[in-house]
Specification:
The complex is a heterodimer. By secondary structure, chain A is mainly beta. Chain A contains three helices and nine strands. Chain B has two helices and five strands; from the N terminus they run αβββββα. In chain B, a hairpin with a 6-residue loop joins strand 2 and strand 3 (86-93). Chain B is globular. Classes of the chains: A mainly beta, B alpha+beta.
Chain lengths: 130, 149
C-alpha cells in the first residue's frame, strides 16, 4: 500500500538509497508490488569528487525525480492460491522512461508478483525471488 | 466424495449443519493426514505449535504438479478455523524478513513437514520475533533447508 509520501528502499545499484513516492501511476490511491510509481530520491550514495562533470551528471543525486517499480511491500499481498506474502520493508527498483531498470544489478529479494505483471528483466536480475 | 450419513457425533441429536459441513470438508481436504497437525487438543509433540521450524512444499502450476517450490520458516502463528485453518511462516531471506501465510488445506500445498519442534516458546503468537528475533532465525535447520531449497 504505497501512496504519496511513502518511503521505499531502493535495491538496485543506481546510486539512490531511499526514494519517496510522489505519484502512483494508476488510477488508484495505493500501489502494490509490480505497480509503477514516480519517486523523488531522498538519499543517494555520495558521488566521488574524481568524476568529471559529464560523468557525474548521469549519476543519481538527492532530489532527482524518476520512475520506479515496487518490488517488496510490508502490506501482505494475496496470491491466487490463498497465500499471503509480506516482507519487512517497502522496496523499489528505479526505471528509465522505457520501463527498463536504471541500475545493472538488483541487491536483494523481490516478490514473485513481478513475474505475473511482466517485469521479467527485474526478475531475472534479482538474486532471489519469493 | 459423498457422505451417505452426515458426519455427526453420536451425542449430537440434532447436528448443526455448518459443523457437519466443516467436518466433511476437512475430511475431503485431508489427503495426507495434515489435519493431525492442527488438532487443538493433541500433545505438543504430535501437532504443529508456534515456534516450530516448518518446511512447506507448494505446487506452482496446476498443469504441471511436479514443479514445486519450498519455503522453510519458523511458525509464528496458527489460526485454527476448521477448513480455513492457516499458519504463518517467517524466515529471513537475503537479510529481509519474509512472512508467508499458507492455507493448511489448500490442494496446492503438497507437503507440510515439521523439521524441528519449538523450544522455550511461551506464547501462541510469536509476533514479537519481528522486533526481537534473538537467535531464532540463526538455527541450523533454517539455514540448512535454505541451502537445499
Amino acid at each position: 500500500m504505497i501512496q504519496l509520501k511513502s518511503r521505499l528502499n531502493v535495491i538496485d545499484n543506481s546510486g539512490a538509497i531511499v526514494a519517496e513516492c510522489i505519484k502512483v501511476l494508476k488510477n488508484a490511491r495505493w500501489a502494490s508490488v509490480g505497480d509503477e510509481i514516480v519517486v523523488s530520491v531522498k538519499k543517494a550514495r555520495p558521488i566521488s569528487e574524481k568524476t568529471t562533470n559529464v560523468q557525474s551528471a548521469a549519476k543519481l543525486r538527492k532530489g532527482d525525480v524518476r520512475r520506479a517499480v515496487i518490488v517488496r511491500t510490508k502490506k501482505e499481498i494475496r496470491r491466487p492460491d490463498g497465500r499471503y506474502v509480506r516482507f519487512d520493508d517497502n522496496a523499489c527498483v528505479l526505471l528509465n522512461n522505457n520501463q527498463q531498470p536504471l541500475g545493472s544489478r538488483i541487491l536483494g529479494l523481490v516478490s514473485a508478483e513481478l513475474r505475473f505483471k511482466n517485469w521479467i528483466k527485474i526478475v531475472s536480475l534479482a538474486p532471489r525471488v519469493v | 466424495m459423498q457422505f451417505e450419513t452426515p458426519m455427526a457425533k453420536p451425542e449430537e441429536k440434532r447436528p448443526n449443519v455448518m459443523k457437519v459441513i466443516e467436518r466433511e470438508a476437512i475430511v475431503r481436504a485431508d489427503v495426507d493426514g495434515r489435519s493431525k497437525l492442527f488438532v487443538r487438543r493433541a500433545a505438543p509433540k504430535d501437532r504443529m505449535c508456534a515456534g516450530d521450524i516448518v518446511q512447506v512444499e507448494t505446487i506452482n502450476s496446476v498443469s504441471n504438479p511436479s514443479l514445486t517450490s519450498s519455503f522453510t520458516g519458523v511458525c509464528i502463528a496458527i489460526y485454527r478455523r476448521g477448513i480455513d485453518t492457516s499458519f504463518i511462516l517467517r524466515n529471513i531471506v537475503q537479510k529481509v524478513g519474509v512472512e508467508v501465510r499458507y492455507m493448511a488445506y489448500s490442494p496446492l500445498l503438497k507437503r507440510i513437514e515439521v523439521l524441528q519442534k519449538a523450544q522455550r516458546v511461551r506464547r501462541a503468537k510469536l509476533f514479537y520475533l519481528r522486533e526481537n528475533p534473538g537467535k531464532m532465525f540463526r538455527q541450523k535447520m533454517l539455514t540448512k533447508s535454505a541451502k537445499t531449497s
